[in-house]
Design goal:
The complex is a heterodimer of chains A (293) and B (230). With 293 residues, chain A is mainly α. Chain A has helices at residues 2-32, 39-57, 61-82, 92-114, 140-162, 164-174, 176-181, 186-208, 218-233, 238-258, 263-280, and strands spanning 130-132, 137-139. The radius of gyration of chain A is 19 Å and the shape is globular. Chain B has a single domain, classed as Rossmann fold (3-Layer(aba) Sandwich), CATH 3.40.50. Classes of the chains: A mainly alpha (293), B alpha/beta (230). The A-B interface holds A 167-168, 170-171, 173-175, 177-186, 288, 291-292 and B 48-50, 69-71, 74-75, 78, 80, 82, 84, 86, 88-91, 95, 98-101, 103, 143, 147.
Chain lengths: 293, 230
């Protein structure tokens, strides 16, 4: 029983990372109709930035948790203005070429300076140790991540559903042309929303630094699963991406624990789930068929 | 108030409007009638600024708005009532109503909207797409009235509605007119059109074939119905 609870908890923690990354991808796709293949690279930059800030300037984790998302969000906004916005009128193939190209550039810039070996990042002192849940002990830091990610998802949900900004973003996401006809300058919201999505990826990266190996390629493996998450949840669906993020975290953790005798199954289970969902609901669990323009 | 001059519009290579010119004075209700594919909806989209391939000029109150993007036109007082009713699935009824900023001199307060449309008030927290077709049409009209739009662009507001609801839409447009609102209306229902409108333009193959007043439409109703294929 305690084994199951522990696996479940671990699944929710990796799910928290999937949810944060998928949430950013979902708001970006919703607003720009751009699939940001560079999302994993910004996650990596978040983690690497935290590492560099600490090792070269002595900036602690808590400061990095603010500096990196804000800094990367601004970088994201600059990139959106400089290149990403050009994609809207082009064939979707260019979307892939540009954002994947950005990934390679960002990864190699980091590699050039720091190489490919993993760098250690100490858990912040405040969150060292374990919490006892009766049945089992669990690292305090992971409890923090889970709580923080859930809070963040709830906060984003609140902004999107309860504020005027959220209403404008929802309307612009659902029917951009119609929303323009109602006097709203949809274009003005595109850059901040892109920056926000990138900021979330950077935040996930900082959170990952103390528990995952910090290296230039750390975003690559993760992002493949995150894309499966986004497809399962429904491309552009905010709620779907968060729910599928946690769901896939669980499926993966249980698969690794209970299907470890069948490594082929446990390693591919996410994609089997994705294929199944697509057969059953082509627009994803919470996705809607595109409305006519 | 609205003047359209030599307006041509294209979908790729295909030309759907050919040098259309027409005029709508302040306080008038004017309809565009014509067969499917005559270019009525495209004309409305051009006036709203939603159709990219166009030539010619559109002026509002003497100001050339041809180059203005749709959101700036809306802020000058154009109210868009699209043919699919434009309900947002991800917005509640109240949010659908309050999404557009208020622009005109006489926007309806939300309370007044709900007084006039009790059905919308009952379902104010539901997703707008959960409403019936008639309720969604009322929502689309209520939205531009709340906005305070001075010129309503309505694309077939009676399509698919029961006779009772058609009458309600008519009452509503007449009330808007009494308050000085101008309306440009795409309409297939000639009986409805003559009941609410002052003048009519018949569009055929992308051109204005005829301009008619109510008595002319009534006296030629049979001929027009046959022409429209209804």
């Amino acid at each position: 029983m305690s084994g199951f609870a522990q696996n479940t908890f671990n699944g929710l923690v990796s799910g928290a990372f999937y949810a944060l990354l998928a949430l950013g991808l979902a708001v970006i796709f919703g607003m720009l109709r751009v699939v940001n293949f560079a999302h994993g690279a910004f996650y990596m930059l978040g983690a690497f930035g935290a590492y560099v800030l600490l090792s070269e300037a002595g900036v602690p984790f808590w400061a990095a948790l603010v500096i990196m998302p804000v800094g990367l969000g601004l970088l994201g906004m600059a990139l959106e203005r400089a290149v990403i916005h050009r994609l809207t009128k082009l064939d979707p193939l260019y979307n892939f070429l540009l954002t994947f190209g950005l990934t390679l550039i960002l990864q190699d810039l980091v590699k050039l300076r720091y190489g490919v070996q993993s760098s250690p990042y100490a858990t912040p002192a405040l969150l060292d140790g374990t919490v006892n849940f009766g049945l089992f002990d669990f690292p305090t830091y992971r409890v923090f991540i889970l709580g923080f990610a859930v809070l963040l998802c709830v906060a984003v949900w609140w902004v999107l559903t309860r504020t005027r900004i959220g209403m404008v973003v929802r309307a612009s996401t659902e029917r951009p042309d119609l929303t323009r006809a109602f006097g709203i300058d949809v274009g003005r919201w595109v850059t901040p929303v892109f920056g926000f999505g990138i900021g979330l990826a950077g935040l996930a990266g900082v959170l990952a630094a103390p528990m995952r190996a910090v290296n230039p390629l750390m975003g690559t493996d993760l992002i493949i699963v995150v894309f499966a998450v986004v497809v399962i949840g429904g491309l552009g669906s905010i709620f779907g991406s968060v729910a599928a993020g946690f769901g896939i975290g669980l499926v993966q953790a249980w698969g690794e624990a209970y299907l470890s005798n069948f490594p082929i199954v446990s390693q591919t289970i996410v994609f089997v789930v994705m294929a199944g969902v697509l057969l059953w609901r082509p627009a994803g669990l919470f996705g809607r068929e595109e409305a006519p323009a | 108030m609205l003047r359209v001059e030599n307006l041509s519009a294209f979908y790729g290579e295909a030309q759907v409007l050919r040098e259309v010119s027409l005029e709508v004075s302040a306080g008038e209700v004017v309809t565009l009638v014509g067969r499917n594919g005559a270019g009525k909806s495209t004309l409305l989209r051009c006036v709203m600024g939603l159709h990219p391939g166009q030539r010619g000029t559109v002026t509002l109150d003497g100001r050339d708005i041809t180059g203005l993007p749709a959101h700036k036109r809306a802020r000058l007082g154009l109210g868009w009532v699209p043919d699919d009713r434009g309900s947002y699935a991800t917005l509640t009824v109240t949010e659908n109503l309050t999404l557009p900023p208020t622009v005109g001199p006489d926007p309806w307060p939300l309370e007044r909207v709900y007084e006039a449309f009790p059905a919308l008030h009952t379902r104010r927290d539901s997703a707008a797409t959960m409403l019936s077709g008639g309720e969604q049409q009322m929502l689309a009209l209520a939205r531009v009235l709340r906005m305070g739009a001075r010129l309503l662009l309505c694309d077939e507001p009676t399509e698919g509605l029961s006779p009772l609801l058609v009458q309600q839409v008519g009452d509503l447009l007449r009330e808007a007119k009494r308050h000085g609102v101008t309306v440009l209306l795409v309409e297939q229902n000639l009986h409805f059109a003559t009941g609410v409108a002052d003048r009519h333009y018949l569009l055929a193959e992308g051109r204005v074939a005829e301009a008619m007043d109510n008595s002319e439409v009534r006296s030629r109703e049979r001929e027009l119905l046959a022409y429209l294929g209804i």
